[in-house]
Specification:
By secondary structure, this protein is mainly alpha-helical. It has helices at 3-29, 36-61, 68-96, 104-117, 120-148. Helices cover 81% and strands 0% of the residues. It is elongated.
């Protein structure tokens, strides 16, 4: 794939993923008195959003070269972003099923219902999914930054 086209596709994927991710962490963050794993899921969602923002800026500012090794890295990143997007869409669907509306009384009522329908294992699974993407994308971000800015290597 042409470098400019690949960057545009990557930016589109990241933008779409960020939109869905925002719904996830805004919803989970609005639930008070939830289990600690719910708070961890919210934090992981925000951290994933930060990493995706950084990747978006890097993809926008740098032009991937046609060199095979560098292009392979960008291709792997695109594949991971697609996988991340798919997982975030599943998270969004799971969180949307909570039916949370931003009103304190309603949130507390909804949370009582959520307690009975979801277990800590469900939130742990969601957190594990989000956190694994955070770690993988951070690593790829670091590699791409080193390739894009070799003058800063010590």
């Amino acid at each position: 794939m042409e470098a400019a086209g690949a960057a545009a596709t990557l930016l589109t994927l990241i933008g779409f993923t960020l939109q869905s991710l925002k719904t996830v962490y805004e919803t989970t963050g609005s639930i008070r008195d939830g289990p600690p794993m719910l708070a961890r899921l919210t934090i992981a969602g925000k951290e994933l959003g930060t990493v995706l923002d950084q990747l978006s800026k890097l993809a926008h500012d740098s032009q991937p070269s046609q060199q095979s090794a560098e292009q392979d890295i960008w291709d792997a990143l695109s594949q991971n972003i697609v996988h991340c997007r798919d997982d975030v869409l599943h998270l969004e669907k799971d969180v949307a099923a909570l039916g949370v509306v931003k009103s304190d009384r309603l949130i507390r009522k909804v949370w009582k219902i959520v307690k009975t329908s979801l277990k800590d294992k469900d939130f742990e699974r969601m957190w594990t999914t989000a956190q694994s993407h955070v770690e993988a994308l951070k690593l790829q971000l670091s590699i791409i930054e080193r390739l894009a800015f070799p003058e800063f290597l010590v």
